[in-house]
Amino acid sequence: MHLTLSAALDLSAAPEPQGGIAGWAAGLVEAFGGPGAGAAIALENLFPPLPSEVILPLTGFAASQGVLSIASALFWTTLGSVVGAVVLYGIGAVFGRERMHAWWAKLPLVKASDLVRTEEWFARHGTKAILLGRMVPVFRSLISVPAGVERMPLPVFVTLTTAGSLVWNTVLVMAGYWLGDQWDVVGAYVGVVSKVVLALAAVALVGYVAMRIRGRNRERP
User: Fold this and answer.
1) Is it the case that residue 116 has pLDDT exceeding 80?
2) Which CA distances in Å does 34 have to 21, 58, 87, 110?
3) Average pLDDT over the chain, rounded to whole?
4) What is the spatial distance between Cα 183 and Cα 170, in angstroms, rounded to a whole number?
5) How far is residue 201 from each of residues 41, 50, 52, 104, 197, measured CA to CA in Å?
6) Is there a contact between 57 and 65 (Cβ–Cβ < 8 Å)?
7) Whole-angstrom Cα distance, residue 40 to residue 50?
8) CB-CB neighbours of 27 under 10 Å
9) What is the pLDDT of residues 139-150, one digit of tens each?
């Protein structure tokens, strides 16, 4: 006999997530099972502040309590990842290369050649970026937009996104499954990684802006 997720959490040592992201995700999984988990992950792709490091381990814990099967958890969360990524790909494709160049030209401290070099880099390494980017917090969502702008073949994009998402989802879902009532520990560790990634990105951005300002000062007579 399958338990409801709320009942399973009541029986565990972990506090029941009655509010916030965890409570919202628990409600979806309890009400709709695998499709609910998939919907939560699809929204997480569209809105990166929604943490997969909470949703996926919670789904794994639900599977350990018999609310849904591991196969269902992995299938639906991976499908949700792909659906969310394809929506972002579509936004990039609609935005298009010409609009991207026009928008880029209006930005301070950047040159058209910078965007061209970025496009050339994506042309050479885009497949690796899509595959590995699905396993990097924050960037796992954002990487879909340039793929759409550069019109990466959709079958290739979907295949790489599915593969990368399956790896990421499996690690976090299984961690929640094996940790049981300690599933929330996963979010703490992955949250640290997310903060490190964001800090490195911020440092890189500051360094880039500083180099541009210095270069412009040198160009002035």
Assistant:
1) no
2) 17, 12, 20, 45
3) 75
4) 14
5) 24, 19, 20, 19, 6
6) no
7) 9
8) 16
9) 777 788 888 888
